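Notes to self, 3-hydroxybenzoate 6-hydroxylase:
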Amino acid sequence: MTAVNKVAIAGSGVAGLAAAIQLAKAGVEVDVFESKAELSALGSGITLQGNALRVFDALGAWNDIRDAGFAFEGLNLRAPGPGAPVVAQLPDVKTGGPDYPSGMGMPRPELARILLAHAAAEGANVRFGAQVTGIDTNAADAVEVFVDGESAGSYDLLIGADGLNSTVRGLIGIETKPEPTGMGIWRTFVSRPDDVMRSELYYGGPVYIAGYTPTGENSMYAFLVEKAQDRVGISPEEATRIMLEESRAYDGPWNDIRADLEAGATANYTWFTKHLVDGAWNRGRVVIIGDAAHSCPPTIAQGAAQGLEDALVLTELLTGKDAVDQSLWDEFHARRLPRAAAVVNASVQLGQWQIDGDRDADAGGLIFGIAQQMAVPA
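result:
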């Protein structure tokens, strides 16, 4: 017996679809409401650490995801300037354990497609162009969910996995919102040079960090992290020009990246943000997970992994207990809040040290400590 029989999920990102897969597997009736008209994923690529891969295996999606991405071990640090010499090769902690690579990259749209296919195969109903707009929580053991102003029915639980600007978060009166950290990032999706076999980072030069991650045999995403600037309204041509100019201090594979930009690859720009709901993520029969509950800069590439862990822990409790009661929520928060908080705080601290130019900071120690924490399953 499960604690729930019918669940609504707002949002079809990684956390929402992971929750849908696990609940549907257990025989729970699941409706996913996605406000976008069709499957989409912002950004060019995503880096996934081992603890995210461990969750994909629990979902039954690991084989498909492994085949669609580019697995790697370790991290290279390169110097800016002529030749871009590799100055260090750093091993990664296997945060997923010995059965998984330390990390992998893949295109975000491909990850979304695979998770959607698995959710549908398990029997979850996913509706696009359907915005959760309201709730009625007057019943003690149910929540009525309104979609585009009309009642979609009564559910045992509503999971708000609707991202940074979560509607569900506001509907339950949680006022925490994402705040800028002071950094902005340029991203582009390009072809992978043959010699790029893992993530590589360049420190120094005109931006805080330059880097790239392979996402497939023929693809990778590249990025430049700079001081946050107002880039609203610039044309695609201007975006490409800026990324080209800011990258010229970096040699090696950046020459290939610039060639792709000049040939038509597009550049996009976003700010890094942070937030953490420091307290209960639920209000009665409504709970938020993933970016709706916490977000951080991608400085240790744990954002998606934390949302996936939220979904896995929550669905484990919902399918393993016989009631949605305070003991369930206490266990959920005990297992998730400190872990997510550690990732958010470390990610923000790493960025702040770069902004401050703090050369004495023990960035390596902080990253290693978080990786060791993540190696223990949530």
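- The chain is about 35% helix and 30% strand.
- The domain at 6-68+110-178+275-375 is CATH 3.50.50.60 (FAD/NAD(P)-binding domain).
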